[in-house]
Design brief:
This protein is an alpha/beta fold. The protein folds into two domains: about 5-330, 3-Layer(aba) Sandwich (Rossmann fold); about 335-425, ANL, C-terminal domain (GMP Synthetase, Chain A, domain 3, 2-Layer Sandwich). It is about 30% helix and about 25% strand. Strand 14 and strand 15 (about 340-345) form a beta hairpin. Helix 8 crosses helix 9 (about 200-210) and helix 9 (about 200-210) crosses helix 10. About 35% of the residues are buried.
Length: about 425
């Protein structure tokens, strides 16, 4: 009812939301988990009033009173991208939501998904991103942020706002499609405190700088977003951009739900605003399986148990979930004629144990042939021929049948049209 007014007041809601958020990772999670449980029950009551979710509750044979904790959310089914696309896509042109903000995903796992946010939800999502920065030690009021151009930003590359002209909330955009030299020059000129881009976009100019020995300004913090960062990636980024790498995790649909700080080997969930669970094929909590996210701030058009498409490992300590590792897309497969598949995380150890490989993409051309695009560290110990032999030998020990390989050696692998880089492109068995 008040969405039009809320849209005008989005910056105010953002500011007020940020004041309420925890800006540090607690030593004792008991208070934040109590807050999470309260918000979980409130979300369940709100969702039950929406026909889409009432049907899901009824099919599961439960009511909102059965949902009291984050773990209880697994009593409801997982929400897939296809289900979200069909449900929310049908609401985009509904007059009731004319003042909502409609974002669209990149389509990295299939067709793009339209996602509707009320102005208050969108303000909270933005405040949460500032919270991620502040948890890491960044002050958005006085720091300088630089990011890729984003179609959803209201003023990408436009004039500074009044606050920015006063030196507050400074933000510069860099054209991720520009040449490597232009990107590096822009970073070196602006000297951002915080830099964030899609990992593949960042990797492009980092590889270029590393190969040619170009100096790139070291931001205090930088965040390669939207894609899995491997340990090989991490080592290269630190070599070129310094030690301030931040690994925040989330999606366009949910916002940033957890963060891995420098020197840590696990992700901490923003438990006051999200529930992150790992479930098996039956939707039950498991130490390893499908990663599902529930943003607790999104109560107008909720996303409960949203499956982002990644697998992960989870450790639970004193009732608190910690994500130990995000293992990558579940829908990236090598396929066989008999219907069997091999997933990317099954072959990950082969890549991770060879630091000479900086980038790699597998294109399965047939049931017999895999084309490999590969970037080698110029400081590598292994020659191209030795790397080819290493990959063929070790991968064929993992695959369910031997493949033939052809190698295309590159200086950098171009991203897909959505700006990301799929590790496996399967052209057979669809």
């Amino acid at each position: 009812m008040f969405e039009k007014l809320d849209k005008k007041l989005m910056n105010l809601w953002l500011f007020l939301d940020l004041q309420k958020m925890s800006l540090e990772i607690p030593d004792n999670f008991s208070k934040v988990i109590r807050m999470q449980n309260e918000r979980v029950h409130k979300l369940a009551r709100a969702a039950y009033q929406i026909p889409f979710y009432r049907e899901r509750f009824d099919k599961a044979g439960i009511t909102p009173d059965d949902i009291r904790t984050g773990d209880d959310l697994t009593k409801l089914p997982v929400l897939t991208k296809d289900e979200l696309r069909e449900w929310m896509g049908g609401l985009v042109h509904d007059p009731r939501y004319k003042d909502y903000i409609c974002d669209t995903t990149s389509g990295s796992t299939g067709k793009p998904v339209s996602i509707l946010f009320s102005p208050k939800e969108k303000a909270y999502m933005k405040a949460n991103w500032y919270r991620v920065m502040r948890v890491c030690g960044y002050d958005p009021k006085t720091g300088k942020t630089m990011s890729r151009i984003n179609a959803h930003d209201e003023n990408p590359g436009g004039e500074d706002t009044r606050l920015q002209r006063l030196g507050l909330f400074r933000h510069e955009f860099v054209n991720q499609y520009a040449s490597e030299d232009e990107i590096i020059d822009a970073i070196n000129t602006y000297k951002p405190t915080w830099l964030y881009m899609n990992k593949t976009e960042m990797m492009r100019f980092v590889l270029y700088a590393d190969r040619l020995g170009k100096q790139v300004y070291h931001p205090k913090f930088y965040d390669p977003i939207s894609e899995k960062v491997t340990e090989n990636d991490r080592a290269l980024f630190k070599r070129v951009l310094g030690k301030g790498i931040i690994d925040s995790y989330g999606s366009a649909e949910t916002g940033a739900c957890m963060v891995r700080l420098p020197g840590k080997d696990y992700y901490v969930v923003h438990n006051d605003s999200f529930v992150v669970n790992v479930v098996d094929e039956d939707g039950q909590l498991a130490p390893r399986g499908r990663l599902i996210i529930t943003p607790l701030y999104k109560t107008d058009l909720p996303l409960i148990n949203y499956e982002v498409g990644d697998s992960a490992t989870m450790r639970t300590h004193q009732g608190v979930h910690f994500i130990m590792n995000v293992e990558g897309r579940l829908n990236d497969y090598f396929r066989y004629e008999d219907g069997r598949v091999t997933s990317f995380f099954e072959v990950t150890p082969v890549i991770a144990h060879c630091s000479d490989i900086l980038q790699i993409r597998f294109i399965q051309k047939s049931y017999e042939l895999i084309h490999v695009q590969i970037v080698r560290d110029e400081k590598a110990e292994k020659t191209r021929e030795e790397l080819e032999e290493y990959l063929v030998t070790n991968l064929n020990q993992i695959f369910k049948k031997p493949f033939r390989f052809e190698f295309e050696w590159m200086q950098s692998i171009p991203p897909d049209p959505n700006g990301k880089l799929r590790m496996i492109v399967c052209e057979v068995g669809r």
